[in-house]
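=== RUN LOG ===
request id: a7f3
mode: sequence -> structure
chains: 1
length: 504
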Amino acid sequence: MTLIREDDLIESVADALQFISYYHPVDFIQAVNEAYEREESSAAKDALAQILINSRMSATGHRPLCQDTGIVTVFIRVGMGVSWEGATMSVSDMVNEGVRRAYMHPDNILRASILEDPDGARKNTKDNTPAVIHYEIVEGETVDVQVAAKGGGSENKSKFVMLNPSDSVVDWVVQTIPTMGAGWCPPGILGIGLGGTAEKAAVMAKESLMEPIDIHELKVRGPESRAEELRLEIFDAVNNLGIGAQGLGGLTTVLDVKIKDYPTHAASKPVAMIPNCVSTRHAHFVLDGSGPSLQKAPSLSDWPDITWDVGPSARRVDLDNLTREEVKSWKPGETLLLSGVMLTGRDAAHKRIVEMLDNRENLPVDLTGRVIYYVGPVNPVRDEIVGPAGPTTSTRMDKFTDQVLEQTGLFAMVGKAERGSIAIEAIKKHQSAYLMAVGGAAYLVAKAIKSSRVIAFDDLGMEAIHEFVVEDMPVTVAVDSRGTNVHEIGPVEWAQKILIKNAG
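=== RESULT ===
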């Protein structure tokens, strides 16, 4: 019989969540670096460089890799020989107390993103609880725990299908990946659950993402099961799509494909697919009664020594003197360095702005001639001006775009990944532009922010409208004033290049 103290589990969960907020797994860094070294697309290579530099900066500064510090998922296997010494809480309460301590740590405050009453008030719980917890009672005398923090950008791109038994899983994945856009911040990892029932497939997909990156080792030794054959088939097929880093077009879209399977009904083939983004975050620990199990920090030598330079072709933009004519002159794929006043606003702020416009109320902030940044930053600590402040997925703002552009005088928008057809038509109609910042580089982006203050909708917390003063903030022109979209052009171009390369 092993005696486990509740504080040991609480402390271990809290430590793991703090740890994964600023440390990538080393195998992931190695895989991204390998993708960077072999990448031939200049836009994708540039994005990968920013991701790697951001990762090293986060590891050094002990601040989040991404502003979206996720919803916590825990897989916990409790041995039947375990007893909880003097426990006053349930195991779920222990886990949630660990989450609470991690997210409210004064030296590294993490963004509280969890909302209760999900289709009603959507009120922030303020401490990122509750976690989503999966239990298994197993043989043994230890408590085995896997902890992950999944951001909304990748989690929201999860897919499920109930295929016919004769249908091809590979075909479904290849058809589905392009529909997911780039909001899941590729290159990442695909987790696939195959078999069981609908809910079993989804849980397996999530759990598979905890496994180490080993696709290249699998290629060398060869597959030993149908699941391993599928991993290799899907890996090659998805990368051949040419989607590339951040959806800009390139050689690497996925770093690995993970599959867990389970027996299923004769008439069924349930398949769930969940992507992990470039801010993938997970950790593993085991409690054996000897005390808390704390994470071991990797060496900074595990990170590649990469420098990033925007180059002489980058155009500097003065946001305080921006004109419509200058916006119209921006070219698709062009790198801009933004300086001056930039406003923020994401889902909740846009919803309120539109409601106020519909009610003919005066807005609390003047958007005329401004650029708005889709971001919900992490609260600052110590001498920080703002915490990590990377872009959020832009398609969530698509339905608001036409009205906001038409009625506020807004010039342009900055966000993550692609825009949908409705937003692109609005951009073209109003001769606006959409600029893309690199997802997964939140700490790096934050260094370009020289001052920050909340100027409207304070009650919305991280969704309040902030005024940032930025200096040389790097962005890419993703949609120009004519509606030309690099997220359409890039993958098509690189899919063709990959086809020719493979044929040769």
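=== NOTES ===
The mean pLDDT is 96.
DSSP finds 15 helices and 19 strands in the chain.
=== END ===
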